[in-house]
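Page 47, continued from p. 46.
Same chain as before, 79 aa.
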Amino acid sequence: MKLYHGSTVVIDKIDLSVSKPNKDFGKGFYLSDNKQQAYEMASYKAAQLDMEPVVNVFEFDERILTDSFSPLNIKRFDN
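Result:
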């Protein structure tokens, strides 16, 4: 599954140590399956910083959602 992250920089590798702690669901790396939503978030941030928006694309293996040993804390919203 392709997931998108809106930003002002190209992200080659996810690094949770640089995530901000006070987001909606806490510190983490936020992704969307909606490319337009990611672009809008990138545009919002870019306008604040006088930068260009960047939409990063990641391929996510959905099997990790059902893996009971997954190290990830995933919040999934289907609606």
